[in-house]
Amino acid sequence: MHDEAIHPAVRVGHVHLRVADLDRALAFYRDALGFPVTADARELALDMVLLAAGDYHHHIGLNTFESAGAEPPPPGRTGLYHVAFLYPDRRELGRAVGRLLEHGHAIDHGSDHGGTVSV
């Protein structure tokens, strides 16, 4: 067993999500949240799209590998519970909330954690 903690400068670089419908997922991550597409592998007959904020190669990978048309997992199953996108300030978070609302996505919860605010 190795007891050294991971270096504190390590950050999550990206997450890949298996989705049931790539166009529906793009409507959320690209259109509602505003992440630009950095690569669309569908042009190469691969059902995957990469998106990023800024000049990073990708923060989010969306694919339908083994998941096209799949139903959501039933309650009580393992899987991704939470992901956080960190905005530079409250103004930008507010703009993101407005964009989500404009695209028909309801905000059902908000929390002030002291150092951060989440919706």
CATH superfamily of the largest domain: 2,3-Dihydroxybiphenyl 1,2-Dioxygenase, domain 1
Strand order within the widest beta sheet? 1-4-3-2
Instruction: State the helicity in percent bands.
Output: 10-25%
Number of domains: 2
Q: Write down the Rg.
A: 16 Å
Corresponding CATH architecture of the largest domain? Roll
Mean pLDDT: 91
Which overall shape is indicated by the principal axes computed on the Cα atoms? Answer: globular
Oligomer: single chain
Estimated share of beta-strand residues: 15-25%
SS summary, helix count: 2
Q: What is the ordering of alpha helices and beta strands? A: EHEEEHEE
Task: Please describe the biggest sheet, giving its number of strands, its sense, and whether it closes into a barrel.
Answer: 4 strands, mixed
Can you tell me the CATH topology of the largest domain?
2,3-Dihydroxybiphenyl 1,2-Dioxygenase, domain 1
**Contiguous runs where pLDDT drops below 50 for at least 5 residues:** none
Distance between the termini: 38 Å
Count of extended strands: 6
Structural class category: alpha+beta
CATH class of the largest domain: Alpha Beta
Summarize the structure.
This protein has helices at residues 22-32, 90-102, and strands spanning 15-18, 37-40, 48-51, 60-63, 111-112, 117-118.
